[in-house]
């Protein structure tokens, strides 16, 4: 299984569009790995996790053929992960589309797609698959295990999801947009022997947020999250672990993140990184 990081930023991107902070000023100057699109993942050219506001530039920059995408897994309905507007261009008259695409997500994801596009799933050639944490989904040869994330805490109006994704008996955890997991998710992850993991680190290395566990994780909490996965047997000391989903407010220049995480044996994701699982 090949997983490509299409984006590694939180909602505002890096540099944030309107921001004058020191991190954004330096990121604009440096370019390269300091430029971070909104978080999304490509799996084996036929699956995606999230489809956000940078989908067009990600398609162009990383030469993605969206006609090969069979399914998109949504973590939750926040606008940096769900871009309904660009889903509606699948309609006949706007585009030539020859096959349906399956959308996996919670109820609010489905409601927002239909509400904001004002189109039916059939018109957009979408097959909706409403899912909840704790279920197992098998779609063709891919296994999908949704886990409940600790996110959307202010409104409590939806269950955000993290995912264990499997193919050919190889498994990766994608766990961004979460604080410290609820106990039920820690119990469920015991059932897996992961071959790779991507862990949330939105709050980065800013001293104000570095220990944060609520809604998002700071860098220290990301290390503790990795340690908990090892403690439960889901990871070994050799399993590659990456941190991802960074906010500019977390002081997240790439070299500084690498300096922090290198002693812990954790890799720092960047746009275009390819992970072989």
Describe the structure.
- The chain has 277 residues and is of the alpha/beta class.
- It has one domain (2-276): Ribonuclease Z/Hydroxyacylglutathione hydrolase-like (Metallo-beta-lactamase, Chain A, 4-Layer Sandwich).
- It is built from 7 helices and 14 strands.
- It has helices at residues 22-30, 55-61, 84-87, 107-117, 183-189, 219-231, 254-261, and strands spanning 2-7, 40-43, 47-49, 71-73, 101-105, 126-130, 137-139, 142-148, 161-167, 170-175, 196-200, 241-244, 267-268, 274-276.
- The strands form 2 sheets. A 7-stranded mixed sheet has the order 6-5-4-3-2-1-14.
- The longest helix is centred in the C-terminal third of the chain and has 13 residues, at 219-231.
- The N and C termini lie close together (5 Å).
- The mean pLDDT is 96.
Shape verdict? globular
Percent helix range: 10-25%
Can you count the helices? 7
How far apart are the termini?
5 Å
C-alpha Rg (nearest Å)? 18 Å
Low-confidence stretches: none
How many domains would you count in the coordinates?
1
Strand order of the largest sheet: 6-5-4-3-2-1-14
> What sequence of helices (H) and strands (E) makes up the elements?
EHEEHEHEHEEEEEHEHEHEE
CATH H-level superfamily title: Ribonuclease Z/Hydroxyacylglutathione hydrolase-like
Beta-strand portion reads: 15-25%
Largest sheet: 7 strands, mixed
How many strand units? 14
CATH architecture: 4-Layer Sandwich
Mean pLDDT: 96
């Amino acid at each position: 299984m090949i997983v490509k990081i299409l984006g590694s930023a939180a909602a505002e991107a890096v540099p944030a569009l309107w921001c004058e902070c020191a991190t954004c000023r330096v990121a604009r100057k440096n370019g390269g790995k300091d430029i971070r699109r909104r978080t999304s993942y490509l799996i084996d050219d036929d699956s995606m996790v999230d489809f956000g506001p940078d989908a067009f530039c990600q398609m162009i920059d990383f030469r993605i053929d969206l006609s090969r995408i069979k399914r998109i897994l949504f973590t939750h309905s926040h606008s940096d992960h769900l871009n309904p507007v660009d889903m509606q261009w699948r309609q006949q008259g706007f585009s030539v589309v020859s096959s349906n695409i399956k959308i996996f997500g919670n109820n609010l994801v489905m409601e927002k797609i239909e509400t904001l596009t004002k189109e039916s799933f059939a018109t957009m050639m979408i097959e909706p698959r409403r899912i909840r944490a704790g279920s197992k989904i098998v779609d063709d040869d891919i296994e999908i295990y949704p886990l409940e994330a600790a996110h959307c805490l202010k409104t409590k109006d939806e269950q955000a999801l993290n995912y264990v994704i499997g193919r050919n008996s190889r498994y990766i955890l994608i766990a961004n947009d979460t604080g410290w997991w609820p106990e039920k998710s820690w119990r469920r992850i015991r059932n897996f022997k992961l071959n790779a993991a991507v862990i949330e680190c939105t709050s980065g290395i800013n001293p104000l947020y570095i220990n944060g566990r609520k809604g998002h994780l700071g860098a220290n909490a990301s290390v503790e999250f990795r340690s908990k996965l090892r403690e439960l047997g889901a990871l070994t000391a050799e399993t590659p672990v990456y941190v991802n989903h960074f906010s500019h407010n977390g002081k997240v220049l790439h070299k500084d993140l690498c300096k922090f995480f290198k002693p812990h044996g954790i890799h720092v994701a960047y746009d275009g990184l390819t992970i072989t699982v």
